[in-house]
Amino acid sequence: MLRANAKGEASVQAIFITGGASGIGRAIAERFAREGWRVGLADVDAAGLAATAALLPDGAETYVMDVRDRDAWVAALDDFTAKAGRLDVLANNAGIPLGGPLAEAAFDEIDRTVAINLTGVINGARIGHAYLKRTPGACLLNTASASAIYGSAGLAIYSATKFGVRALTEALDGEWAGDGIRVRGLVPAFIDTPLLAHPTAGSNRSIRETVTGAGLELSPVEDVAEAAWRAVHGDALFEYVGKTAHRLRFAARWMPGRLRKLMRRRFG
């Protein structure tokens, strides 16, 4: 897709995606690349970045970086925008899972999850603002979670970080309106990505086994990519993905007492 730049010349729209080595980030990259967008990918997984870039028609600019590293954010965005000439979308997508009882969680894992899932997203927003502001109609796209609809027993820290991402999205939607930057959020439920292979804390079962054992559905990652495309081109603040996300949204609004009892039963 082409838009005119400040000089009236046509230029290819550009998206920068964190967590681009696999899962949701990879699917978003493929979706936007099919539309002719220029893609920048960031992740700590160099091999995964190369694999994602190889799937795209025109490849991608890749950056091995940790979203906790603010200097790395600046270096990557400086390089990508210098090459692309613009930044239409910053997809703040990087995140890690952490499940199991809070009372049994290791403090280093708690700190790491908060730093990546929440502080990393804040870093992207704070540093990305200046780059997005240069492109009229640019969009910050944050990946939250259905765990940000109602605090999920067994996912306390993960839920807390995703509630933070949701709050940040709502706040910046108002705060950045005057700058011409649109802010949107993705709220997926359980998505079939490599993250589900991680063990559930305090258990030998994977997150995938725990989810499917509870009778919950896994949505294909392509559904999130389509939601990302809708989010960037629509006016809804949040795009919900998966039956569980829609059910939680309904229950949190209309049946909070019942939802509270359900959470207690599932973890009791």
TrEMBL record:
Transmembrane segments: none annotated. The keyword Oxidoreductase applies. Keywords: Oxidoreductase. The keyword Oxidoreductase applies. InterPro entries: KR_dom, NAD(P)-bd_dom_sf, SDR_fam. Pfam families: adh_short. It comes from the Bacteria. Residues 13-184 form the Ketoreductase domain. Gene3D superfamilies: NAD(P)-binding Rossmann-like Domain. NCBIfam families: PRK08267.1 (NF006123). Belongs to the short-chain dehydrogenases/reductases (SDR) family. This is SDR family oxidoreductase. It comes from Sphingomonas floccifaciens. The lineage of its organism: Bacteria, Pseudomonadati, Pseudomonadota, Alphaproteobacteria, Sphingomonadales.
